[in-house]
Amino acid sequence: MKDLESAELKDLEQALHYEEFRKHRPRSTRIFRRNAEYLLYLLGTWLADRFELKHLQVAGRFIGKLAYRFFPKERGIALMQLGKIHPELSPAQRESWCRECFSHFGQLLTEFLGMQKIEEHWPHCLDIENEEILQEALAQQKGVLLMALHQGNWELISLYAKHARIKMNATTANFPEARVNEKLLQRLDRNGICGSTLTLKLKFADFEQITRSESRSLPFDRSSLLETGKRKLHQCCSREYPGRPIRLLGIGISNFGKPPRVVQLDFFEDLKIPV
Length: 275
Fold this sequence. Notes:
By secondary structure, this protein is mainly α. It is built from twelve helices and three strands; from the N terminus they run ααααααααααββαβα. Among the domains are: 2-123, no CATH class; 192-259, DNA polymerase, Y-family, little finger domain (Dna Ligase, domain 1, 2-Layer Sandwich), CATH 3.30.1490.100. The protein has a three-stranded antiparallel β-sheet, with helices on one face. Strand 1 (194-204) and strand 2 (209-215) form a beta hairpin.
């Protein structure tokens, strides 16, 4: 049975080859593409801060239609995949489905950038099926692992967890453009949101992978986050695994929330006795 499944997977892998869509861009164009991605991100966040959710959705669908027209590589891959999965569809039907997918993807992109606006309407944006199974597992003090295909705004689950008071950790990857990651951190700082769990992930040259975490009762600030990350890295590289070459390094922050408000009281003002 396993051999049959492996053969089927191998046949599918051979059928879904993308060599004809590969552009083979020169390495020198990477800087241009990174700058373009950064400018698009700035434009998206600017729009998300100034327009209502319904307007963002309309703009996103329009962006998706433009992407369908001007991104022949992505359009070609999507049409080929539809042809493999649904061979019964006519070319016109595949093009219609593909165009609709691009339109929805553009909407998902602007919804992601406007996630804070979605929180204002979150009960109307998310429908949880089989919620009783989740609540039953949590009542038994069991963890729940949610695995989602990247076909929609799975980030909406975090809004549900927040309002349902469920502790949630998400495993994600940084965007390849460092300036985008820095802007995301600035947005968190501006909204007073920070994390209380730091996770260090190391992958060595032989592909062995380790993870180390540290949690605090109060959220990290920027300086304590960097100091804790450096301390964890030094501990792993110098004490636990000295001399081993590192292939991949990742640092993540989770358990986001707003730190408690600290108010400076006027001691002598509080001790005044009315005369």
